[in-house]
Structures are given as structure tokens and as C-alpha cells.
Amino acid sequence: MSRYQRYSGGDPLAPPVDLAEALEAIGEDVMAGYSPERAMQEFLRRGGAEQSGLDDLAARVAQKRQELLQRHDLDGTLREVKELLEKALLEERKQLARDITMDDGDRAFRELRLESLPSSTSAAVSELSSYDWTSSEAREAYEEIKDLLGRELLDQRFAGMKEALEGAGEEDRAAINEMLGDLNELLEKHARGEDTDQDFADFMDKHGDFFPEGPENIEELLDTLAQRSAAAQRMLNSMTPEQREELMQLSAQAFGSPELMEQLARMDANLQALRPGEDWGGSQRFEGEEGLGLGDGTGVLQDLADLDELAEQLAQSYGGARLDDVDLDKLERQLGDQAAVDARTLAELERALRDSGYLRRSSEGDLRLSPKAMRQLGKSLLRDVATRLTGRQGQRDVRRAGAAGELTGSSRAWEFGDTEPWDVTRTVTNAVVRTAAGGGSARGGVRLELEDLEVAETEARTQACVALLVDTSFSMAMDGRWVPMKRTALALHQLISSRFRGDALQLIAFGRHAQVMEIEELTGLDARWAKGTNLHHGLLLANRHFRKHPSAQPVLLVVTDGEPTAHLESDGEVWFSYPPHPLTIANTVRELDASRRLGAQTTFFRLGEDPGLARFIDSMARRVDGRMVSPELDDLGAAVVGSYLGSRSGESSYGDQFGGYGGWGDRGFWVGG
What we know:
The protein is built from 26 helices and 16 strands. The chain is α/β, with parallel strands linked by helices. The strands form six sheets. Strands 11-10-9-12-15-16 form a six-stranded mixed beta sheet, with helices on both faces. Mean pLDDT is 82; it is low at 393-404 and 647-673.
């Protein structure tokens, strides 16, 4: 048997979730010092450019909750009863005034009785239970009070009863009483552990029309009834003492018989015993003016409970929280289809991030960015660098086949911005294979698609040995230069590892002391608050790197925001002094001279506006025939990459803008990545 229901999964033709934006945001937070787990959670909270996040959904939940409390009041049924009572009294007085056949003594007695009714609505309704109405309209209004109370009390426990029982007769009311009796017997039997599946099936066969939710077993039936009953109790708790007293007295008049209240009280007691975990003692403070009936009020209390549960799920603040915990049905019911689609997309995004290989568990059990994630993030940063480079040139992109270097004999898939020549054989083969896999025939013609294109890989004509020295001192973190420094290192690492594989890159972080770092280690490095700028130690490690590659062109790139304040003593201890000590300066200059003797092309990237630092760095650069570049933080990556690429025989202005060099070998023209 096939079952159909309304589709609520969003646009079925929408593309799969895009991890690029999420990965870039996560990478930014990781470089700022967040753990990958926390960075992922922060992205899910913020959302993307066109994707609502958890915070947005939580704010909408809180807004709806506030609207419900500020719009409504709980005395809707009491108001309606009072209006019906006033209508009955008015119609009765009118009938007494115009009935000329009535005995004057009887008329006076009746008028006196109506005038002496208590001010309490519930007490007046109770006193009039034995009154013999002379007006048919008055009698109907009074009987409607009892009918209304019965329907409202049932609607509190069984949603939809108020409308379903409108105009119901004695036979319908008898069926209600029978259902309540059978239900209480089933609940009490279940509490003793004596019920069977057949007992539940028999009950549903007999009374299933009263339960449109269609529970499939007694546990589902219990959950539905207990949630509604607990909401009814919370509504009663939320009323003022006067409202509660009025309602309890009026309840005895429901359907003109106390039997209904007895059955409902019995049912509430059974449900509370079977589901003690429901919120039976809570209350809410309503501040609005729109009166709610008992059934509608219970529904609003259930909505408030749903909203509170959704708020907790969206907060994700409990142990082991996952977005799969969010109840999409409740979210759709409370906030609409789009909210459920947004939450489902976020859950898919979380699963994709965990399952795609971008995040992986370390041996210590914590999440880390995988090499795959680092490559993807590096590509994104490199594209940004390329945009800045081409934008600063202010000229059209001119390419020449093979300009990037010599052919390596291998090929790879074409990417936007590639300058390498097509590998025609591989491209045509890809198209033929794709056509055959799709059930087509090469004899019918082969069409090239973008996915078929492959380009011949090239290597730079001149091998370079690159040392990127990045300042990790206290001031870099304090002045907001920590993340731009990491972005720069990752962009350069991605460029060399993907396009200039013959070059040897070493990343060296120097603070109070220096150390060689892999890109994953540098990217995840927490801010260091120890003072000290040990450029001397960094240059020692760079020169060691250069000596390991004697046939390559040394390239020294130094990113710093301060003068050297520390150096390494002969015994390996760090000497720190601020302001810079002449001995520290002497050791640093000596090692910089050693870099020059090794043939290193040197560029300093000065961060900050300190004029004293500018004079010092400029003198250091001129000493070794190097350059000093003073980029804005947003341009740091473009400046470093541009300096690495060097000039292109006068066709680009990388050298003029960023301090690149053209004499040691053409790195080729590169855009994108």
C-alpha cells in the first residue's frame, strides 16, 4: 500500500549544500584560535550569506513565544460565559416585561430573583440551574453555557472537540462518557501492567474517531494525551486565583452533569501517574487582551512548550548536541516550511562537514582540519589573492601558453584561470568515455563539456628555495595581525604546493624563539602572548634551509611588525631586551648578511605605522639589496605572493607594487587557482 503526504523538503531541484563558504568561515575562525569543532558550531550559528543560521531560527522562536504571551489572556471562556449569561438575563427580563398574562406576584418574584443574583458569574450560573425560564431565547443561551463548558473542557484534553461537538445531542455526549470510561480503564490496566496489544486495538476500533493523530500503540496514545493534559494543568496554574475559582465552579455545570468532570479528573490523575516527567507544575504569565478559551489556551500552552523545547534544541548547549536533534515537524508547525528547510539544510551541512573528510579526529580525540580542508581553504585564499593582484594591475589579463613553465608530462582537470595548454588527447578521451557511459555512441558525435577539459601540468623554469618568516610575537596578536599572517602563509603554501611543486617552501614562525612549522600547525597556532621578536633565530633556520638546496634560488620573505628584541645565545638560551639591545641587532644583521652571501632575494613586509620601525626595516632591506613593502592587512597575502612570483619580463607590475624580483628567474604568470 502506498502512502502520500505533503512534500516539505524544500526545493527538490536545489543544488547540494555548498561546503566552500562554510569551510572558509571555519578556517578563518580556526586561524583566529578557535578549535575546528567550535568554529563549525559558530558557522552553524551564524549561517551563510544566503542561509539562515541557528541564531536566526532561535530568535524567531523567541519572538513568537513573546508574541503569544503579549497577545493573549486566559479568561476567554469566562468572558464568553459571562456574555451568554447577560444575554439570557436580558432576554428573560424582556419576556417578563411584555408577558401580560403572567401573575403579577410571579413576575415580581422572578424579577427579584434575577436582581438578587450574586456578582460572581459562576455562582450566578449555579443558582440559575433550577430556574424555570419563561423566555425560550434565554433558556437557549443558558443551555449554551453548559454546552460550551463541556465542549471547552473536552477541547482542553482532546484537540478539536469544541468544534466537533458543536450542536451535539445526548447520544453524542453519552458516547463521550463511554469513551472516557473505557479510556480510564485502559490506562489503569496499563498502569498495573495487565494490558495487551489487543486491548489497545479494541479501544481504537471502538473509539478511534476521537483520536485523529492515529496513535499506533498505547505509548503514543499516552504521550499525546499527557502532553495535552499537562498543558491544560499549566493553563490552570497560569490563571489568577479568582479565575481558577470561577472556572472550577463553572466546570460542575458542564453538560449539566458533574459526571464529565469526574471522568476528566480521573483521566488527569492516571496520566500524571503514567507520565510524571511532563511539566505538570509550570505556568506562564500572559499579558495580552485577546481572550483564549480553554481549548485554545491549552493549545497555546502546548505551543509555548514546543517553542521552549525548540529553543533548547537550537541552542545546542547540552552534551553531544547535534542538529539532527532539532524536531523539524515542530519547527515547521511553529515557524513555517522555510524554517524547517533552513534547519534541515544546516543539519545536512553539519553531516557533510563531518563526513566529507574536511574534519578528522586526532589521536587525542579532538577535531582538526584535514589536509583536504587545508587545500580547499588554500584555494579559496589564493583566489582572493589573485583577485587583488589582477585588480591592482588595472589591465587586461594577457596569457601565453606555457608561460607558467616547462611541461611535466602529467595533466590535471582544468580550473578557471589556468594558463597551461590543453592536453588534447586526455580531453577528447574524457569526452568519449563520458558519452559512452551515458549510453551514447561516439559515431553519433562527441561534444566537449567543461568537465572533460584537462591541461598539461608545468613546472617553473627556475627552482626556488623559499623561506617565509612570520612574526608570532605578542604585538601581532594584540594588534589584529594574527589571522592575516596565517592567511598569507596558507595562500603561499597552496600556490607552491599546487603550481610550483619544484620549489621548496619552509614556514618559520619567530616570536621569543623561532621554529619550523608545517602549514597545519601554523594555521591552528594559538596566539602567543610572550614578548619577544627573535628574527635572529628565524634567519638561522632560513639559512639552514637555503644550504640544504644549494642549486635553488633562495627567496627570503619576512613578515613582521616590530624590531628584533631577542636573539639566540651560543648556549641556545634566548636573550630578550626592550628596547632592542645593540647585541641583538648585531646578531640579527650578521645572520641577514649570511643570507645575502647565499644569494637570497629578500623582501621585508612591514606591518604597522611606526616610523622608527619603518626606518630600521628599510635600512635592513637596503643592506642586502632587498625591498621593504608596507601593505595593508587585507593586501598582505597579495604582497607576499606577488613578491614570490616576481616580475614577468616587464609584462606585469608585481615587482613595482610588491617588491618582487625579475633577475633570478621567471616564475611565470599566474591567476586564480
